[in-house]
Design goal:
Distance between the termini: 40 Å
Strand order of the largest sheet: 14-13-12-11-7-10-9-8-15
Number of helices: 9
CATH topology of the largest domain: Dihydrodipicolinate Reductase, domain 2
Helix content: 25-40%
CATH architecture of the largest domain: 2-Layer Sandwich
Number of strands: 15
Structural class: alpha/beta
CATH class of the largest domain: Alpha Beta
Number of domains: 2
Shape: globular
Oligomer: single chain
């Protein structure tokens, strides 16, 4: 059992704790830290988490194996470095960092310390996404032509003014940091590295943040993926990959249902679909347990350092495209 600390106990930090505490035999949270102690005291008592007053008390504790950060994005490099220097394995909320230089510096610290690094792209771990990955890898889809991703949440409509998530320096390009980076990671996994991006960003309904972001990625292998994100609609997440032999997709509103539609011998008639249900799966628990397994030496964390850095490079290019209104090559 990995003994972890959770640093950052806002709504997402609490979601991470709820996913594993008392439910996993691989990882448990024994300590926590937050900037707003009063908002977390009751939660930590209920979850039997020792709420600490400062990060040093966590990093200096030999009874803590790993630190999970759900902190503002601009702090990630600093926090990862401090954990690594203390010999703690570290997992961080997405986006990993806000620019490539920061990502490289954080990963250099992790490599120097020899600790395990995880990043919370939990949707990659869902079995429905795994079904798409399997069909991409084994050739069932034939030659890929394009992909579509859609993700939505109403959270932008009710963000409080005091939330750091309303700060455009922390959340550039509207819905990218909250939602779009999941699609970036997902399609890097399925289609490979990205060569060029184009992004359009706007504010439609949310009072404090740009809420709607659309971006297209041209992958190095020629596949095009187009992605739609909004912070101002009903919760939904779905992706689809189109190939010469069929379509593999997850169906709205969640990842619970996978569907494969084969090409038929009639050009305007779809083949008989294959449907696989994966209800009740918790991807947040899955990513935390994959991190724990990597710490235990059972299996490498499936998102590599190179993929993490490339994902940040793609994100940085998308932010630049949103600002300039022009396509941007990924560095």
């Amino acid at each position: 059992m990995i003994r972890a600390a959770i640093v950052g106990l806002g709504w997402w930090g609490k979601t991470v704790v709820d996913a594993v505490q008392g439910k996993s035999d691989k990882i448990a949270f024994v300590a926590g830290g937050t900037r707003t102690r009063a908002k977390a005291e009751e939660f930590c008592r209920d979850k039997k988490i020792d709420l600490r007053d400062d990060l040093d008390s966590i990093l200096n504790d030999p009874n803590i194996d790993a630190v999970v950060y759900t902190t503002p994005h601009s702090r990630h490099e600093e926090h990862i470095k401090r954990a690594a220097q203390a010999g703690k394995h570290v997992c961080v909320e997405k986006p990993f960092t806000l620019n490539v230089a920061s990502a490289r510096a954080a990963i250099d610290a992790v490599k120097k310390a020899g600790v395990v690094l995880g990043v919370d792209f939990q949707r990659r771990f869902h079995p429905s996404v795994g079904e798409i990955r399997k069909r991409v890898r084994d050739g069932s889809l034939g030659t890929l032509s394009f992909c579509v991703g859609e993700v939505a949440t109403p959270s932008g409509l009710a963000l409080p003014k005091e939330s750091w998530r309303t700060n455009p320096e922390e959340t550039p390009a509207g819905a990218m940091t909250g939602l779009g980076v999941h699609l970036v990671d997902g399609f890097i996994d399925l289609c490979g590295e990205v060569d060029e991006v184009y992004c359009v960003n706007t504010r439609r309904a949310a009072p404090l943040v740009d809420d709607t972001t659309v971006f297209t990625m041209k992958h190095k292998n020629g596949v095009i993926s187009t992605n739609y994100c909004t912070l101002a609609s009903a919760a939904s997440y779905c992706i689809a990959v189109f190939g010469t032999r069929g379509i593999a997709e997850t169906m709205r509103p969640s990842l619970d249902t996978f569907r494969f539609i084969p090409v038929s011998d009639k050009p305007h008639v779809a083949g008989q679909p294959e449907i696989i249900e994966n209800k009740g799966f918790n991807p947040v628990q899955a990513v935390m347990e994959a991190f724990a397994a990597a710490v235990q030496g059972e299996a490498p964390f499936p998102i590599t350092h190179d993929q993490i850095i490339h994902g940040v490079a793609v994100f940085e290019a998308i932010v630049k495209s949103a600002k300039t209104g022009q396509p941007v090559k990924v560095a």
